[in-house]
Design goal:
The complex is a heterodimer of chains A (about 475) and B (about 240). Chain A is an alpha+beta fold and about 475 residues long. Chain B is globular. In chain B, α5 links the parallel β6 and β7. The interface between A and B is large, with 62 and 65 residues. The structure holds iron/sulfur cluster (SF4) (2 copies). The site of one iron/sulfur cluster has 13 residues of chain B, from α2.
Chain lengths: ~475, ~240
């Protein structure tokens, strides 16, 4: 396999094309984490399958490929050896029709929901609860099917795809920063950063330090805002309305600060290929710091009040637990994985130059894998983002008078593959782009952290009361649009 | 208990008292102010920008600011009362001005005011948006915007609703659920399109996975532009429509 780094490109011709047997064996023997496993149509109706693996400890990315001619329609699945491939192989089958044989559960990912026959449990007092695609609240659509015995959930099947709007195809015909921002609208900064970095790599542009820092600060503001909102949502789901109100109001302060920086509460329009569109002026930085100081005080006070309350703790503790082994096996990423003790954080695993320059370090966390852990981890990450923001803001004062925008030709390098991983608040957002001989985009692959994590939610609710589902769900807060593309 | 009280006291009052006359910071990109002249319309990612005469269709516009930064004839003001009952009125030219727009864009019908003026319960249906509009609609009910004080609420069951609010460009995969939901709402009912996606397909308009036939079958009562729709835009749009 070819070894590369995050935020780089390679010539596609350098990527090995192995026999499927060797391809499988290499993946299994390396046993690294899949972050990309996708097909690309090739000449004479053949399909080239790429595998992209992450060696998180070393900060390396491995890439390899194999080819299926038009009449080769199957291969022996990888999921049986490495379960984390389960969703990737389902997706590859759905998009290209090449079947992973002996896959334990080859159900649809985004299409044909109505044809799928749900897993059925039989027995006395066993019943099903079906929810969605339209849910009770104002949230995105998805279908949940619970197999219950009385109040207890034995198994949950999740059917998604309702938000499918052909993003990967649109990326080829009309790629833009605005489209990138609209893939997953609660992670605008993470997605637009990944897209812009891909484009900059393909155009051989290096953006100014100032622009890099502004993006980085915005990413942490996004994390802070959503995490605070989620603390509120968790509070709301256990009917602790005081928490819901206080966190709701403090989140407003953070996103309104974002609006003052760039005109949008979610950071739309801030980032563009080549840099950023709006400056974080000194006056605004100082104002923002004041606001964040208050925000952190409010959050600290409210979190500590909640954690002291036994009625709160009895709802959070030991609810929706997922063990470290299970989380690892299923291939969970990001915050949900960290809460279960799987230390994956691409900010640290694939660091940019700022992480060492600003002396930003990983914090220890006592992971218990339950709602309580996901609640507390959010709180910890809010504090960490705040301390990062302070450092980034200070550094910004040092790199004044730098260009916000670096222009380049719109020509993309030919026959290239570029990869960019950005740690959004949910986890790693992976963008991989390929160009053809004319420098046009020929494949754009996106992986949202939710793509890995939805199955984690299904595992977490097993043996919990069905009435605890909303709470478990909020504690993960996964994306439908990012998954469905 | 004491801690809870303390937290409560520290918060004070959070709600925006006068929603109708509230203002958004000037950085906000809202109502377009246009001077007749040149502008390269190909820079617009959604086709909202047209020339001869220079115009912006707020039903398509994502308020991304690209045109404003590239061309001196366009300025996106912080005017946020963007809603209209007439799809055509969303097209803004050099002849439009905010004051006149806010007074004339929403046609007030007596029957609507009489039926929904004191209480309007809405069922929201998300059909392939990005979750941006959904987050802002949720914010409408938080302690800052507190939409419930006007008798406007989101409800869980379409049977309890007076109408539906659609976000997203309407995917093929949501066609069945959307129509089912609409049919479950008792008459009389209204349909509100919320955000560039719902109104025109927005940034996803060229996708082949959409199915917008629903909008040909059923009448739309109110268009609320934005990407996402700001809570103040949403609440004021509805208030003007039902009062
Ligand atoms: S602000 Fe609206 S009209 Fe202007 S470029 Fe963006 S989408 Fe087009
Ligand atoms: S209008 Fe914009 S914010 Fe709303 S759903 Fe569409 S892309 Fe997302």
């Amino acid at each position: 396999m070819l070894k590369i780094k995050n935020n780089t490109k390679i010539n596609i011709n350098e990527i090995p094309i192995l026999q499927i047997k060797d391809f499988r064996e290499e993946i299994i023997s390396l046993n690294f984490r899949p972050i990309g496993f996708f097909g690309k149509s090739s000449e004479n109706d053949s399909v080239r399958l790429f595998a992209v693996l992450a060696d998180d400890k070393a900060g390396d990315i491995y890439i390899s490929s194999t080819k299926f001619s038009a009449d080769e329609k199957s291969y022996e699945c990888l999921t049986k050896e490495i379960p984390a491939f389960h969703i990737f192989e389902r997706e590859f089958y759905e998009q290209f029709g090449v079947e992973p044989l002996n896959h334990p559960w080859l159900k649809p990912v985004r299409i044909n929901q109505d044809k799928y026959e749900f897993f059925e449990m039989t027995g006395e007092e066993v019943h099903q609860v079906a929810v969605g695609p339209i849910h009770a609240g104002v949230i995105e659509p998805g279908h949940f099917r619970f197999m219950c015995n009385g109040e207890t959930v034995y198994h949950l099947e999740i059917m998604l795809g309702y938000q499918h709007r052909g993003i990967e195809e649109l990326m080829l015909i009309s790629p833009s920063n605005q489209l990138a921002e609209s893939i997953c609208g609660d992670s605008v900064i993470a997605y637009n950063t990944a897209y812009s970095q891909i484009m900059e790599i393909l155009q051989d542009v290096t953006i100014s330090d100032r622009a890099q820092l502004i993006r980085k600060a915005a990413l942490e503001m996004e994390r802070m805002a959503i995490h605070i909102g989620d603390l509120g949502a968790i509070a709301g789901d256990i009917a602790y309305l005081m928490g819901a109100s206080v966190f709701g109001a403090t989140r407003t302060l953070v996103i309104n600060t974002m609006l003052e920086f760039c005109g949008s509460r979610f950071g739309r329009g801030l980032i563009c290929t080549g840099g950023v569109n709006y400056d974080f002026t000194e006056e605004k930085l100082n104002q923002a710091l004041k606001t964040f100081e208050k925000v952190i005080k409010d959050v600290e006070r409210m979190v500590n009040t909640m954690l002291k309350s036994s009625t709160v703790m009895s709802r959070l503790e030991k609810t929706g637990t997922i063990s470290m082994e299970r989380a690892k096996e299923a291939g969970l990423v990001g915050m949900a994985a960290r809460a279960a003790g799987v230390e994956l954080d691409s900010r640290f695993d694939f660091p940019d130059k700022w992480m060492s320059e600003l002396k930003i370090e990983k914090k220890k966390f006592k992971a218990t894998g339950d709602v309580n852990a996901r609640f507390k981890l959010r709180y910890k990450e809010i504090l960490q983002s705040y301390s990062m923001i302070k450092k980034i803001f200070a550094k910004l004062q040092e790199c004044k008078n730098q260009d916000l925008f670096t222009s380049a030709s719109n020509n993309l390098s030919q026959n290239s593959l570029a990869i960019s991983i950005v740690e959004g608040w949910r986890g790693e957002v992976v963008h991989i782009a390929m160009t053809d001989g004319n420098g046009n985009l020929s494949r754009y692959k996106i992986k949202d952290p939710s793509f890995n994590n939805w199955y984690g939610l299904a595992l977490a609710v097993r043996n919990n009361g069905v009435s605890d589902f909303p709470l478990c769900n909020k504690s993960f807060n996964l994306s439908y649009s990012g998954n469905d593309l | 208990m004491l801690d809870t009280l303390k937290s409560r006291i520290f918060q004070g009052k959070q709600y925006i008292k006068d929603i109708r006359n509230a203002s958004i910071k000037e950085e906000f990109r809202g109502f377009p102010v246009i001077k007749e002249g040149e502008c390269d319309s190909s820079i617009c990612p959604t086709g909202a920008l047209k020339t001869n005469p220079l115009s912006i269709d707020m039903g398509k516009c994502t308020f991304c600011g690209v045109c404003e930064r590239a061309c001196e004839n366009i300025k996106l003001s912080n005017g946020f009362k963007l809603s209209s009952t007439d799809r055509n009125k969303l097209i803004i030219t050099s002849e439009s001005d905010y004051e006149t727009y806010t007074k004339s864009a929403i046609e007030i019908k007596e029957s609507i005011v009489k039926t929904f003026g004191h209480s309007l319960k809405l069922r929201q249906v998300s059909a392939a948006g990005c979750n941006g509009c959904e987050m802002e609609l949720n914010a409408c009910s938080n302690v800052n915007f507190d939409m419930g004080r006007f008798g406007i609420d989101f409800v869980a069951s379409p049977r309890h609703a007076d109408g539906i609010v659609i976000t997203g460009p309407l995917s093929e995969n949501m066609t069945f659920a959307l129509e089912n939901c609409y049919n479950a709402v008792p008459n009389p009912k209204i349909v509100i399109l919320c955000g560039a996606c719902a109104i025109s397909g927005g940034i996803f308009q060229n996708s082949e996975t959409l199915n917008r036939e629903f909008l040909e079958k059923y009448p739309v009562d109110l268009y609320i532009p934005g990407c996402p729709v700001h809570p103040l835009t949403f609440i004021n749009g509805i208030l003007s429509y039902i009062h």
